[in-house]
Amino acid sequence: MNTAAQGMLFVATDVAPAEEADFNQWYDREHVEERVAIEGFLSGTRYQALDATRKYLGLYKTRTLATFRSAAYHAAFTRQTQWSVTHLNNMVNPMRRVCAIEGRVGIGTGSHLSILTCHTPLSSEEARHLGERMLRENGFITSSLLLPDAELSTPLPKEAAAPRAMNAMLLIESREAACGERLAELACREINAEAQFYALSWQLTHQERT
Q: What's the rounded Cα separation, in Å, for the pair 126 and 57?
């Protein structure tokens, strides 16, 4: 695994309806900012499902994958607030993966996100070539390949310990929902993958905190 590559913390979950309002308040008012405040974190972004297994998704980008081995990152877990402990334990069917970001094509942040979970291996070179072809399509913003690190992808409190598949994921960001669906369809003609779809909720960058 390339520890010099940018890193991504991927956390998807459902939440019980009775907990949902407080869960969103916790995420919006505390959790995202706490994570982005950690040295080496670049941004935290929230999404909500349009057509996906889990309703909520958080993506946290880091300067390198090695950030997840840092003392600053591990120290964050020694000072969890009770609010955090409560909601981490209330997550339903959560999924946590720590990934290297490879094969990125394009710039910017799209309003819609297509996640293609690969059922067969996909290399960073293959992902880059696919992204370069999609770059010519209307509505394409960026694509990138997430390669999970099994050692760093420790499970959340309510996450099933095993089996935990460490599938590569191709992320496609687009201008609107229809574009995301079309781009996912094009990509799935070339790779063996299953698509899920999310819409952007909001994003916090490290620069906005300072």
A: 26
